[in-house]
Design brief:
Structural class: mainly alpha
CATH architecture: Orthogonal Bundle
Protein name: Helix-turn-helix transcriptional regulator
Number of strands: 0
CATH superfamily: lambda repressor-like DNA-binding domains
GO molecular function, one term: DNA binding
Number of helices: 5
Largest sheet: none
CATH topology: 434 Repressor (Amino-terminal Domain)
Radius of gyration: 11 Å
Pfam family, one: HTH_3
Keywords: DNA-binding
CATH class: Mainly Alpha
Order of helices and strands: HHHHH
Shape: globular
Distance between the termini: 12 Å
Strand content: under 5%
Amino acid sequence: MNRESLLKKFGKNVKIERIRKDLTQEHLAEKMNVSQKYISIIEGGKANMSLVKILELSQFLETDIENLLNFHD
């Protein structure tokens, strides 16, 4: 899997978990103290986040980091 595919799959996983928690992009952005546009960039597969930021994101989404890093179809 190439870098672009990994980022897109990660973004899709973030969106799935966000929707599962019944959060809007705006609400998640507020919880994370980032912009809604940044959440959109993550979900669009355009953000290459650090491991620390991914861990923080999983905590805000109240999900295991493995759910965000699951790259299997």
